Amino acid sequence: MTLRQPSMLAVMSILPTTDEVQGPAIHARGLEKAYKELRVLRGVDFEVARGSVFALLGSNGAGKTTVVRILSTLLRADAGTARVNGFDVVTQAAGVRGSISLTGQFGRSTGSSAGGRTSSWSPDCGMSRTLARSRTTC
């Protein structure tokens, strides 16, 4: 991935957990993904420390959206492993989903903040707008 013309913004927040969870908030090793003959991810490796801020930047087609979809369990990698908040994205997908909040660049709210989009989508996830706002910092 390169640092040219970031074109996609996704906000993925890892919800606070107890001290029982050890290790990085996000751990990705050897992630690979192809669509037919087009290899979009080729061995992506990174870790995100708990409590840190991490930006996934790259040009159009660099694989940013694919990585976010894999980490949020919306897409399966062809190879590699990933853990989010201690949960394996393949074998513990429900744990991953229960421990993250994800919003994309474009939402259905008229506000431009990630918090506005989070509170707009929160009823679809069974969460009150008040609770969603309390968990979102922008």
TrEMBL record:
What kind of membrane protein is this, topologically? Peripheral membrane protein
Tell me the GO molecular function terms: ATP binding; ATP hydrolysis activity
| GO cellular-component term (any) | plasma membrane
Taxonomy, superkingdom:
Bacteria
SUPFAM superfamilies per record: P-loop containing nucleoside triphosphate hydrolases
User: Where would one find coiled-coil regions in this protein?
Assistant: none
Instruction: State the family named in the UniProt similarity comment for this chain.
Output: Belongs to the ABC transporter superfamily.
Give the protein name, as stated in the record: ABC transporter domain-containing protein
Q: Which organism is it from?
A: Nonomuraea cavernae
**Organism classification, top ranks?**
Bacteria, Bacillati, Actinomycetota, Actinomycetes, Streptosporangiales
